[in-house]
Amino acid sequence: MFPLYLRQLPVRAWCLWRTPGVGKTTLGKELAARSGLKYVNVGDLAREGQLYDGYDEEYDCPILDEDRVVDELENQMSEGGVIIDYHGCDFFPERWFHIVVVLKTENSILYKRLETRGYNEKKLKDNVQCEIFQILYEEALASYSEDIVHQLPSDKPEDLENNIDQILKWIEQWVKDNSS
Ligand code: DAT
User: How are beta strands 99-104 and 13-17 bridged, if at all?
Assistant: First the structure.
């Protein structure tokens, strides 16, 4: 995606999120490889540091300790040059991000992707419904300035390529606009 090295610039971060299975990790890792930005997967970070606050039996997953996640990320976020991947966003400080990308996947495609992950019926249904109602897109719009929130399609491999090209252009533009 990007022949750019931005880590030393005063760029804060780009954040990708949406329902599980939409392609955040795929896009985030590829974007990091091509841009030189650092990719951080919040799910992995929480697992490694056990940043949890109990267990949700209904959804069969640990509950994220959001305050500890924010504390853990604060230093590298203030340095900048980070891509954050997570499926929620309302607990991150607004000042952390310059671009917010929300991926969107067609429901039947998303259903198949989540099925292959072995999600239980409730988790599967709720996640697809979350996508149908665009809940995480609304959450992003409520949490960040509309100017920096972008929704991009993530149904097929060509979408991945187009998204990478598009985000690289936004990054280049951001760098131009913010370098004196
Ligand atoms: P997420 O990180 O949002 O949970 P992922 O990156 O793990 O999603 O992707 C879920 C699955 O979908 C994985 O098998 C890769 C595939 N995938 C991701 N982006 C895609 C795209 N644009 N076209 C087709 N398949 C895609």
Answer: parallel
